[in-house]
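debug: dumping io for the single-chain case to check the tokenizer round-trip. Nothing else runs in this session.
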Amino acid sequence: MGLDDKAKNEFEDASGKAKESFGKATDNEKLEAEGKGDQLSAKAKKAGESVKGFAESAGDKVKDLFKKD
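debug: decoded output
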């Protein structure tokens, strides 16, 4: 995941928190739910990228095991 993607995910998470807080403060359930949804979306993207990074790292280690010197 590039730095740009990480920044977008962090922004989505932060804006989701802000929406949720504003929704709670104004008794706007729709905005509160939308904020929670934004946060979940950002967390899912982060988790997916973590799994992808782990798989790539594991693949590199397996390749290293079979390399002939």
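debug: round-trip ok. The chain has a mean pLDDT of 89.
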